[in-house]
Design brief:
Elements (H helix, E strand, L loop, with lengths): L44 H30 L5 E6 L2 E7 H18 L13 H23 L6 H31 L5 E7 L1 H12 L6 E8 L7 E2 L2 E4 L7 H8 L3 E4 L7 H10 L6 E4 L11 E6 L2 E6 L6 H21 L1 H14 L5 E7 L5 E7 L10 H8 L17 H8 L7 H7 L3 E3 L6 H4 L15 E3 L12 H14 L2 H16 L7
Parallel strand pairs: 3-4, 3-7, 4-6, 7-8, 13-14
Antiparallel strand pairs: 1-2, 5-6, 9-10, 11-12
Helix pairs in contact: 1-2, 1-4, 2-3, 3-4, 8-12
Protein name: Exopolysaccharide biosynthesis polyprenyl glycosylphosphotransferase
Subcellular location: Membrane
InterPro entries: Bact_transf, EPS_sugar_tfrase
Length: 521
């Protein structure tokens, strides 16, 4: 498989076996002897520059928050705090000095807490967790020091600065992430990836990586054993051991910096080990991609045993405190929204009644948890007896065999119904379904019995959790998604749901309702 053996296959301290995100600009260099030192040049520039940008932003945010709280709560530099000194008069310290020290400690906590590490920025929730965790540890440290040394620090100053600081840090990290996602969608600030594996596994991993460009992996080539030299695989250039003496030479040719091994039968354990020795520390990175997809991070745990990096995958659970926590969140959320939106909902009901003949609320039987039917509520957005026309319209557009009964440019919509559908206002009566317990705020979309009848064994897993008012596929494309993509996203939610994930989906739902775009029908 082109892995050199002998004196060149020697261990190099610091070789990286990880899921790294690397290189803004990769300039292909000529093949060199494996193991020879090479200057990484601009390959690491984006990581350093991006970390510096985050550091500057964090510093400015903390200065603004800490000194702003001091100004608002304490009135500037007039107040002081006292630090007891044994046998001497207490040391009087200005709150400006306290703010300077607190800001410096906070910046250091974020730095050494790993919140700006290029391995965690750009995708996933780890970056946000590290920001909150580092800040929380600093808060605990300050509280313990103040208690032990009897330092009289204004409680309001501390209790206001920390939560506000965390919120502002998270907001600006989110803003930088949006910028980074745009850059990565254009091929910058990303790892250039060479895939190594079987034909099937290479195509599978390439497809998965292409679905989320914000993660920072851009496939530039593949190394497939036994594949015709110089050919392409689903648009990916392919190289083999017939063309290069080593995989590292193929990396240079493609301008790649990351090797992703997509199948375990491609390289023997010894060949894989020697490949890791050949990669240049800090320049090349090795990633092992198991044949496991749509599994959330909290379910995955890596445990080294006898030199083997074993990956433990937890079985998804919907019981205990998670189950009751989700139900409590649904009751609280739906109750508060019904109270807050009671007057606007009455106005919508009046508009529906005055603009078309028929009932205000549309009631339809849907299939819920474990296949149990329930009556779902919506504001009526179509003319009366619209259900009788559905099959004819689906047959006309050729989707009657798909379990996602959506009609494009639906002629049954009323004038007010088009507005209600576009902004999802017709869905709000389902808050009563959530309060009753038939639905959840977040979950797979409830479907008709005729749609469920078209399910295969995989799709039936959608029914293992309560249906929701909003869900992952609704905030990921809405009507523009195919049934295959919709079911993939729903199954991902069923397998990996969490309370924080629900909050994130609800936030994305609010954005989708306010700015629905062209995918709303």
């Amino acid at each position: 498989m082109g892995v050199r053996k002998g004196q060149n296959a020697r261990p190099q301290e610091g070789s990286d076996v990880s899921t790294d995100v690397d290189s803004e600009v990769v300039t292909p260099s000529s093949p060199t002897q494996t193991g020879a030192p090479r200057e990484s040049g601009r390959r690491r520039d984006w990581r350093r520059s991006y970390a510096r940008r985050l550091a500057v932003t964090d510093f400015l945010v903390l200065v603004w928050v800490v000194f702003g709280v001091q100004l608002v709560w304490l009135g500037g530099d007039g107040d002081t705090t006292r630090i007891p000194a044994p046998g001497e008069a207490p040391l009087v310290v200005s709150y400006t000095i306290v703010s300077v020290v607190l800001t410096a400690l906070w910046v250091l906590a974020l730095r050494f807490g790993g919140s700006r590490n290029y391995r965690v920025v750009g995708a996933g929730s780890t970056e946000y967790k590290l920001v909150a965790d580092s800040s929380g540890r600093l808060f605990g440290f300050v509280a313990i020091v103040a208690f032990i040394f009897r330092i009289d620090i204004a409680r309001g100053y501390i209790l206001l600065a920390f939560p506000l600081g965390i919120l502002m840090l998270l907001f600006f990290r989110w803003a930088w992430r949006q910028w980074l996602a745009v850059e990565r969608s254009q091929g910058r600030f990303a790892s250039n990836v060479l895939l190594i594996g079987s034909e099937q596994s290479v195509v599978h991993i390439a497809t998965q990586l292409s679905r989320d460009t914000s993660a920072g992996y851009r496939v530039v080539g593949a190394w497939v054993k036994g594949y015709p030299a110089g050919a392409e695989l689903e648009g990916i250039p392919v190289r083999t051991s017939q063309e290069y003496d080593s995989i590292v030479e193929a990396l240079d040719t493609f301008g790649a910096d990351t090797v992703v091994v997509t199948s375990s039968d491609t390289l023997s354990p010894q060949e894989l080990r020697e490949l890791s020795w050949q990669l240049i520390p800090g320049v090349h990175h090795l990633v092992l991609a198991p044949s496991l997809t749509d599994v959330g991070g909290p379910r995955i745990h890596t445990r080294p045993v006898a030199g083997l990096p074993l990956i433990h995958v937890e079985t998804p659970r919907s019981e205990g405190w998670k189950k009751y926590g989700k139900r409590g969140f649904d009751i609280l959320g739906s109750g508060l929204m019904l109270l807050a939106l009671s007057i606007p909902l009455l106005l919508v009901a009046l508009a529906v009644k005055l603009t078309s003949r028929g009932r205000v609320l549309y009631r339809q039987e849907r299939v819920g948890l474990n296949g149990k039917p329930f009556e779902m509520l919506k504001f009526r957005s179509m003319r009366e007896n619209a259900d009788a026309e559905l099959q004819q319209l689906l047959a006309a557009q050729g989707t009657s065999d798909k379990p996602l009964f959506k009609v494009k440019d639906d002629p049954r919509l009323t004038s007010i119904g088009k507005v209600l559908r576009k902004y999802s206002i017709d869905e709000f009566p389902q808050l009563l379904n959530v309060l009753k317990g038939d639905m959840s705020l977040v979950g797979p979309r409830p479907q008709r019995e005729a749609e469920v009848a078209l399910y295969d064994n995989i799709a039936y897993r959608r029914l293992l959790i309560k249906p929701g008012m909003s869900g992952l596929w609704q905030v990921s494309g809405r009507s523009e998604l195919s049934w295959e993509d919709a079911i993939r996203l729903d199954l991902f939610y069923v397998e990996n749901w969490s309370l924080m994930g629900d909050i994130n989906i609800l936030w994305r739902t609010v954005r989708a309702v306010v700015a629905p775009g062209g995918s709303a029908h």
